Amino acid sequence: MAYQLTFTLRFQKHYQTKTEQEKKQLLRKLELLTENPAHLSLRTKRIQGTDILFESSVNMDMRIIWCYDGDDIIVLVDVGHHDILKRF
Question: What is the pTM of this model?
Answer without folding.
Answer: 0.91
